[in-house]
Amino acid sequence: MRYFAFGTALICFALVAPAQGAEVTRTAFGKTASGEPVDIYTLKGDGGVTVTVLSRGATIHSVLVPDKNGKPVDVVHGFDTVAGYESDDNQYFGCTVGRVCNRIGNAEFSLDGETYKLAANDGGNTLHGGGPKSFDKVVWDGEINTDDPTVAAVTFSYFSPDGEEGFPGNVHASVRFALSPNNSLTMRYSATTDMTTPINLTNHAYFNLAGAGGGTVLDHEIMIDADGYTPTDSVLIPTGEIATVADTPLDFRTSTRIGDRIDALTETPSIGYDHNYALNGNVGEVRTVAVLTDPKSGRIVTVKTDQPGLQFYSGNFLKGQKGKAGKTYPYRGAVCMEAQHFPDSVNQGKFPSTLLSPGEEYRHTTIYQFGTK
Asked: What is the pTM of this model?
């Protein structure tokens, strides 16, 4: 195993070439509006898939996946510049979301007798961690990993001080992206705190297996291994109930075309699919929870996780913005499969707890495994 690092004041580049063809490179991607450097890491393995991730937001920038004929295409949304990610056209494309992903009702929660006020960035609610210091918008420290020669891996870490975005506690968070020879991208999240605080992390990649910018995903098919979901009110905050998916447009226990029943949801508050599924299986145990398929290209992504929930979102707010290589991202042009705890768990006593206490460690594993049929 060899490690090379060299650079100038304008660009840095690093190469790690573990055994069996796994390789990681680091190059400069640009700078934020405030002048902070952003790096891009390229993960290559033996299986034919290539992944790039950014230090801004610990973001999945691209995933090149071959189709059934061996032709690779980028299957996730993103931008070619830092400015794109800082623009209003960025709808959490590929980022790591935190401190608390999804929604917190009324932009507040109470803990140990104190009420914490958060940024109301989704009507009167908090969405995906809040404002300018939510995890998707900050630059993380990246470190290329060489401990396992069979995988291409990088770990991002971020220190969130007490009070950042209104949350209590000094939090040290990290996420490791590792591409293995079987074309699995494993994300391992961890966090510690010095005060009890809610933590709920996920990745917000937008997938179109026909290729990012390749039209809608209504002809994609998906299986979600969940008998129940968490109903919501008019502003998408859970009611606290877990309802059955049976006899509803939300039943994907067998693989079903996404467009078959989506119109039944268009005039509802979710405007399509934007629902948290209460996953089957044992929480804390990594198991297959969803399989997304594009019948035309043959591409498949299998989602495995140890989390209790999966937010399935059908790109209902995509607006035709221009992304990488000038591609257009149309309405319902991608789906997100966000493994996480349930929305608003910090205010819902019957949901699995998202509270992390001093001396404990938050751990979370999600895997996207790419293939063809």
From this structure: 0.93
- Let me know if residue 172 belongs to a domain: yes
Q: How far apart are CA 25 and CA 41, in angstroms?
A: 6
Q: How far is residue 250's CA from residue 274's CA, in Å, rounded to a whole number?
A: 10
| Residues assigned a catalytic role | 204, 338
Task: Kindly give the confidence (pLDDT) of every residue in the chain, 373 residues in length, as a single tens digit, with 9 standing for 90 and above.
Answer: 222 232 333 334 344 444 457 899 999 999 999 999 999 999 998 889 999 999 999 999 999 999 999 999 999 999 999 999 999 999 999 999 999 999 999 999 999 999 999 999 999 999 999 999 999 999 999 999 998 989 999 999 999 999 999 999 999 999 999 999 999 999 999 999 999 999 999 999 999 999 999 999 999 999 999 999 999 999 999 999 999 999 999 999 999 999 999 999 999 999 999 999 999 999 999 999 999 999 999 999 999 999 999 999 999 999 999 999 999 999 999 999 999 999 999 999 999 999 999 999 999 999 999 999 8
Are 265 and 339 found together in one domain?
Answer: yes
Let me know if residue 22 belongs to a domain: yes
Q: Is residue 213 part of a domain?
A: no
Statement to judge: residues 115 and 200 lie in one domain:
yes
User: Residue 307 is part of a domain; what is its CATH number?
Assistant: 2.70.98.10
- Using H for helix, E for strand and C for coil, what is the string for 233-294? CCCCCECCCCEECCCCCCCCCCCEEHHHCHHHHCCCCCCCCEEEEEECCCCCCCEEEEEEEC
Decide if 214 is inside a domain: no
3-state SS class at 193: strand
Domain that holds residue 235: 221-347
Structurally, the chain folds into a number of domains equal to 2
Angle at alpha carbon of residue 367, lines to 47 and 152, rounded to 5°: 45
